[in-house]
Design goal:
By secondary structure, the protein is of the alpha/beta class. It has two domains: about 190 residues, 3-Layer(aba) Sandwich (Rossmann fold); about 180 residues, Rossmann fold (3-Layer(aba) Sandwich), CATH 3.40.50. The protein is built from 16 helices and 13 strands. The strands form two sheets. The protein has a seven-stranded parallel beta sheet with strand order 3-2-1-4-5-6-7, with helices on both faces. Strands 10-9-8-11-12-13 form a six-stranded parallel beta sheet, with helices on both faces. Strand 6, helix 8 and strand 7 form a beta-alpha-beta unit. Helix 1 runs parallel beside helix 3 and helix 5 crosses helix 7. The radius of gyration is 21 Å and the shape is globular.
């Protein structure tokens, strides 16, 4: 057996995925004898990864859409890069990079491939495209030696759809990609929240995030709590965009504040009384509801893959059916009218984060997987 560290190549479609979801994890892995190499499409965040984590980075363009000729070029370039790195393990994640990276790993004869499933497009897709995505994700899983899903509900869904076989799928700790640093998030306080309580959302402002459902629910919420305010933290998405009418209604409403993309969302959670996450699906295990829970906020989210792991119904928040503006309004109205319930669910959520979703639990779980397969 070689005395050198286990060499791990991480491939994602865009570098921001690794920048966000490997923050702190890369240094932890390195301290445990795992040498990281980062591969993703060129971009500012790839340079930031190199600077922050002090790891070698390799820009390889990977299109997010289906582009057969460009995809073939990406596979060739990924294979060449992997042959140069000679990793013991390649970790592939995000839908496009998972498929192309797994194929390239086979071509480059990488000994082991780990498919880290952060979400499945199959859950959200419909019509002929659903068949296409399902088979692409099934192929990604088949090409991998090990499949790690970031939530129990995601693994259950993958098995029901025959994307992941029973002998491959596993969860690390209680789930999540990188856990939560609870110390970073200060407990929300009820002081001053009675007069103008803030309902908050953090994430992409896109149709699939349920922003239009929230826009439809907001007038009903305001009719019961006229002093309530809505805080939207995130950038408007060009793809899967919110309709012009709904966006205009939100941006022109004096009770709504759209702050755009921010690097540090922590101060915005502190302003909120209730956090909402009305996504339509394809989440895996969303970070924002867990950050809100770490801030001591009750969470209203949809009964979708990942969200059912992030929220414990009736204990840390409320789960509602997706695409249900009426149910969304009812849940928010209930919390705004009951400060004691907000505190009870918020405190339970923070305690759950501290007990089950500490970053070190996920990091050590990944170390155990890499050491087991990297030394076999």
């Amino acid at each position: 057996m070689s005395s050198r560290p286990i060499r791990l190549a991480c491939i994602t479609t865009v570098p921001i995925t690794q920048h966000c979801f490997l923050d702190g994890q890369t240094n932890y892995l390195s301290s445990r004898g795992i040498e990281i190499h980062s591969i993703a499409s060129p971009g500012e965040h790839l340079d930031l990864i190199a600077e922050r984590d002090r790891v070698p980075v390799y820009p390889v363009h990977i299109s997010r859409s289906i582009t057969p000729l460009s995809d073939l070029v990406s596979i060739v370039n990924l294979a060449r890069t992997l042959k140069a790195i000679q990793p013991d393990i390649v970790n592939v994640s995000t839908p496009k990079a998972a498929l192309l990276g797994a194929i390239a790993a086979r071509i480059a004869r990488v000994p082991h491939t780990v498919f880290l499933v952060r979400g499945l497009i199959t859950e959200y897709a419909s019509g002929p495209s659903r068949w296409l995505y399902r088979n692409a994700e099934r192929l990604s899983a088949a090409l991998a030696d090990t499949v790690v899903c970031v939530s129990p509900s995601l693994l259950d869904f993958a098995r029901r759809e025959s994307i992941v076989s029973a002998d491959k799928g596993q969860i690390v700790a209680s789930g999540m990609s990188n856990g939560i640093n609870a110390a970073k998030f200060r407990r929300a306080t009820e002081v001053g929240r009675q007069d103008s309580p803030v309902v908050g959302f953090v994430g992409r402002l896109a149709a699939d995030k349920g922003i239009e459902d929230l826009a439809r629910a907001w007038p009903r919420i305001r009719s019961v709590h006229p002093n309530a305010r809505l805080l939207l933290v995130g950038a408007w998405e060009a793809e899967d965009s919110v309709s012009r009418q709904m966006r205009a209604a939100l941006e022109s409403d004096p009770s709504v504040t759209c702050v755009g993309f921010v690097d540090d969302v922590t101060p915005y959670y502190e302003q909120m009384a209730v956090f909402v996450y009305p996504t339509h699906g394809s989440e895996g295990f969303p970070n924002a509801p867990m950050e809100a829970a770490a801030s001591g906020l009750p969470v209203v989210a949809t009964e979708t893959v990942g969200c059912v792991d992030a929220v414990v119904e009736g204990r840390t928040g409320t789960l509602i059916p997706p695409r249900s503006p009426g149910r969304l309004a009812e849940a928010v109205i209930t919390y705004l009218g009951d400060p004691d319930l907000r505190v009870e669910h918020g405190e339970a959520g923070r305690q759950r984060v501290e007990d089950e979703f500490r970053q070190e639990l996920i990091w050590q779980g990944m170390v155990d997987i890499y050491q087991e397969i990297g030394t076999s």
